[in-house]
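=== RUN LOG ===
request id: a7f3
mode: sequence -> structure
chains: 1
length: 255
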Amino acid sequence: MKITRRFTMAMKRNVQAATQADEAAAQAQNAEAAATETPVEVETPKAGKPAAATTAVAKATTTAVAAPRKQLVRLYDDLQDVFVAEYGVLPKLKTTNGNVQDSDNKLLGDHINIQILSWNKQYVVGPCANSAPAELVKYSYDREAFADGSGLLDDYVAELKADNWNNAAVKEYYEIVCVLTGSAKPSDLIGEMVQLQLSPTSVKDFEGYRLQTAFKIARGLLPEDAAANVTVSAEVVTAKGNTWTKMNFKPQAMA
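=== RESULT ===
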């Protein structure tokens, strides 16, 4: 199975954005749119003249230095941008109608179990309108330029708005490369590497899961290996007249 190390932007531009646009366009248009010390110079006595005896006195300081705050590290920080699979190399899982579905449109049920290998951010730019053509949706990995080399994100948003797509915007998505370890329904993909794309509301849940689970592990409320296996469930959400399915994340032991 081909895995491409993500150390340069050139790799990113191997992404087949045109093909990916057809699959993710609907998601892009839903309601989610809506210290240092200073050295002391010491004078050297001139030759032939003995130096006067001196006693070094350290100047007392009264400034108290506060202990640095310890920051809670979120889960999987060490797995961000480890590697990314070129589009189409790995089976892609998505959520639809309260279920997880594979690239062949086979349902895996309302939840799956995974082991996370890597994750990265992806930026989706489009009109954010259900009536917009799929080809108007573009992708980036650095929030500046598109993966296909077609231009800059902010310039494209301005172009879309000039064409009366008033809701055009940049939306942050995540991609997760993981091993599928289980599913609610039988799947031939169990034991294989797969790829998940998280829409904006799923990103929020993933970030909440990373922080809350790290906190509970630090407090001893969960074992240190609690995050080794993750359950991802599909939840139907309705807002502003739109309905879509997002992903929820929990340690597998708590699901």
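=== NOTES ===
Residues 153 and 174 are 17 Å apart (CA to CA).
The longest strand covers residues 111-126.
=== END ===
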